[in-house]
Each structure stands twice: as C-alpha cells, then as structure tokens.
Amino acid sequence: MSRAPSRNEAPRVRPGESSAPAVRRLRPFYNRHRDGVIGYSLLAPMFLFFAVFSLFPVLFVIYLSFTEWNGVLGLPKGVGFDNFVRFFTTGDYLLTLLHAGLYGLLILAGCMTIGFLIAVLLNQKVKAVGLYRTLWYLPVVVSFAVVAQIANALLDPVTGLARKVMERFGMEPIIFQQSVFWMTFWLIVISVWKGIGGTVIIYLAGLQGIDTALYEAAKVDGATRFKIMFYITLPSLRPITMYIAIMGIIGSFQIFEPVQLLTHGGPQGHTNIILHRIYQDAFQSFNMGMASASSVMVLLFTFTLTMIQYRISQRNQT
C-alpha cells in the first residue's frame, strides 16, 4: 500500500515527466513556434555581437557628444550643445569636413572612371585575363601601412628615388612634404591606386551580367561601339554605378590612413580631414566630447547625402 509523500519530502517524478511547471507551460508555445524559436536562437549571437560592438558604441558616442570628458579620469560632465556650437563656429572643423568631401569626390571620380575603363578591358577575351584581374585587385589586399612606407621611401626629400631621378635629369629637386599641391596630388593618386581594384571587380561583374543578345542585336542594326557603350552598357550599369557612388560618399568621410601615414594633415593643415581631426581630438587632446560631436555630425552629414543620392537614383529609374 502506497503512502502519501510528506510535506518535506520531494514528490516522485515518473520517467519522461518534467518536474518543472514552467517547462510544461512553455512546451505548447515551443511546439507552436518551433521554427521561430530555432531561427531566433541561431540569430541571437549575431544580434548580441551587433548590440555590443555597433549599437552600444553609437549610442555611447551620441551621449558623449553632449558631455565634456578626457576619457581617462572622472565621469563625463554634461555641457549641452556646446560641442556642436563649437563645431560650427570654429572654422577648422568645417574646413576639415570640406577637405574630406573634396578629396573623397576626387578619389571617387578617379576610381569610377579609371575602374570602369579597366573593367571594360578586362572583360575582353584575352590570354591570361585572370592574371591581369588579380594584378589589378592586388593593391586592395595590401596593407596601407606597407603602401605608406613605400611612398615615404620614394618621396623622401634626402634619399628618395624621386629626388635621385630628378637630379639625374638635371631638374631641381622638389620637397614634396612642403608643397600643398604635390602632397594633395600624391594623396589622391595613392588612394585611387589602392582602392581601384574593388571598383574594377564590381564593374566587371556588372559587365558580365549584361545580356549578350543586346550587343548582338545592336551590331546587327549597325550600331557603333560608342553607341553600344552609351545606349546599352552605361544604362545597364546604372544601378551598380549608383551603388559605387553611394558607398564612395560614405567612404569619403572615412579616409584616415592616407592622411595619418603620408601627410599627417600637413603641410599647414591643408590635407587635414575630419576623421583625422577626430583622432587628434580624441587621442591627442583627450577631448572625447568634441570628438564624439564631430563623429555625430559626420554621421548626419553622410546619411543626408546618401539619402539625397538614393532619392535621385530612384527618381531616375522611374
């Protein structure tokens, strides 16, 4: 004869029967939403990574933009909109923002124009075309620190290769580091050379996606190469071109390595750009509040330009 369990005695659990009431209550929910639970469980690590390394830093920078803090001692002290007022009233910040937009526009124009022409050439059926494509993409995977070391060795005012070549031909040596024109020139040229490979690959993929029947029909109708390029190739690549342009605008305000490793913002600050100024405020002047306010302004400015360009592209497609 079985006896009833006492008050202090744990109830016996039959095999296969859950002892947790919460689990029994959640089991019907799990059975109804099994696919969703499994899906969100698989996505949970990605959401956590995004929240920790993307969402939280953005919110923290926005918070710091309204404060004054050296990033080391004490706690952030609220200053309201003083950092943003300083951003607009101090001409240095707007000038670095203008420099970033100007250099980014020139680099983007160079990458898009030269990259498109190279992609057209690499789209032809020639021998060892795979080798040529690899060579054009190789600068993308090379670290900019290595590129900067090579460039500094070539442009060195005392032992640089450029100085020796000019002396060899009887020319007056140029101290590039003291010339605004030449440092701007080399900054743009090296940046275009470093980033043109990605543009070439994207344009090449777009060219290979165009239906060859369009070209054959145009040739049958007697269209010239110029007309085929103008009326078939370029319109077909319009979405890709807009994508490259939008990504280029975003990337133009993220230029940092060329300035930091080649020009250091000189000469006389003419090559200083907004991201390098943010670096100076944050890690040289230890003014985290001003650096955060500048970062927020760059975010808003980039977002505004991107939305304007996106609306224009959508209007042109309709």
Give a written overview of the molecule:
The structure is a single chain. The protein is an all-alpha fold and 318 residues long. It folds into two domains: 21-64, no CATH class; 90-317, MetI-like (MetI-like fold, Orthogonal Bundle), CATH 1.10.3720.10. Helix content is 71%, strand content 1%. The chain has 14 helices and two strands, in the order ααββαααααααααααα. The protein has helices at 21-32, 34-64, 82-89, 91-122, 129-141, 144-154, 161-168, 180-208, 212-220, 225-236, 238-252, 257-263, 274-283, 288-317; strands at 67-68, 77-78. A two-stranded antiparallel sheet has the order 1-2. The mean pLDDT is 84.
Features:
mainly alpha, 318 residues, MetI-like fold, 1% strand, two-stranded antiparallel sheet, 2 domains, single chain, 14 helices
Structural category: mainly alpha
Strand order of the largest sheet: 1-2
Sheet having the most strands: 2 strands, antiparallel
Assign the CATH superfamily of the largest domain: MetI-like
- Proportion of β residues? under 5%
Q: According to CATH, what is the class of the largest domain?
A: Mainly Alpha
CATH fold node name of the largest domain: MetI-like fold
- Total domains, how many? 2
Query: How many β strands by DSSP?
Result: 2
